[in-house]
Amino acid sequence: MARIRGKVVVMALAICGALQAQAQAPAPSAEVRKFLKYDQPLIALTHVRVIDGTGGPAQEERTVILRNGRIEAVTDARVAPPAGAHVVALEGHSVMPGLVGMHNHLMYTASLHQDEEGHLPPPGFLVTELAFSAPRLYLAAGVTTMRTTGSIEPYTDLNIRNKIDALEMPGPHIDVTGPYLEGRGSVFPQMTSLEEADHARRTVAFWSGEGATSFKAYMNIPQAVLAAAIDEAHKHGRKLTGHLCSVDYRQAAALGIDNLEHGPVFTDSEFVPGRKQDQCPSSAAIAASWEKLEVSSPQVQELIRDLVAHKVALTSPLPVFESFVATRPLLSRQQQSMMSAESLRSHLAARAAAAGAPERAAKLEAALKKEMAFELAFVRAGGLLLAGPDPTGNGGVLPGFGDQRELQLLVEAGFTPVEAIRIGTANGARFLSRLDRIGTIEAGKEADLVVVKGDPSRRIADVENVQVVFKDGYGYDPAKLVASVRGMVGVR
């Protein structure tokens, strides 16, 4: 009897705790409510195809029950929904986990500002913070969690995260990366220069205290400074990724880096002849060093084995590379309508210049294909591949739209559609240590879901047909989110 009473007390406490947490959850602001399609506490998504994010086959004719911001159950569509549920009939639609963007930014290449000779005059390559438009576009595209993966305005990013979490503005959950950890010689005047290990440690410690949850090293960082940054980040329970050049992939893996961005074909300098310590070779030198290397070669296979052995995750931002290939499609009319006049002009000018160099376009296309082949081989060898579009470059990658394109390019690389969806959902959740909460469709997890018209498990392009995005159980209208920022990408 005492044992039964004890269980009753425990259950009562659990129920009280859940009710208290629900009562303390912030209510959506008037600004957020403008974009809500569904806000009922109990919702049944019926007659839907479930693509659960595990990489397994799609499940036909299912009902997904959402209660108080969580997935309560996934049942056979023939089972009646719970009493009082708001029923959403979704014949011909699919539900998949919310995307977890792992190379995303709240900034964008507003304009290249080149001079008459095609050079970047001082102060260099400037980017613009998109505090207003980027969060809305990410959410509209189905991105419910993202990592900023390098920040030029970390305080802005932190404040945006807090406002989104408080339901004061729409947007995804954000893993905020601290300011870039860069060495001397960057073309970006918005980045600091870290030349001493102690400076790197102080920077990582400070921004960890300010709320940054990850860090990113950049192209010119010296090896000793990178080692100190990695060590300090791990002391604070943070992970560190890198878009490297002065330090090669295997050197970074030996130092304990958690993640590498872009893939090696465009960034790994280890095969450049005569490379000097702590110096970043030119992009042309890196490209030339990879031109004659096949993914099946002993050198590249050894690199793959080394990365897998060190448990280094790779992020695939294929769209940013594709945007430089003149033979690839231009942005859709809808995407062009999202851009400011200056941003669109700048990007189209860059593409026109690239179109005038067919030999270079052919080399870039070959490099893109080789990068795809490397990513496929890395995963087949047991590596953890993440997804994110990197909306920078020549302005040809937009927040949200780029995340959808990334999945399509992963399929072009040789992954099946359900594998690509797993890379873009569960893999990111695993790296962020949140797979117990997000990344797959399972009972008990947060109701972060994307409803699309069609079947992306067979036709990956259907990921573009987003009808509703559920985040924490609230259903957002993507069309309204997109319409609210038309013409703003690049300026706001």
From TrEMBL:
The keyword RNA-binding does not apply. Keywords: Signal. Residues 95-255, 408-473 form the Amidohydrolase-related domain. Pfam families: Amidohydro_1. InterPro entries: Amidohydro-rel, Metal-dep_hydrolase_composite, Metal_Hydrolase, Metallo-dep_Hydrolase. Residues 1-23 form the signal peptide. Gene3D superfamilies: Metal-dependent hydrolases, Urease, subunit C, domain 1. This is Amidohydrolase family protein. It comes from Massilia terrae.
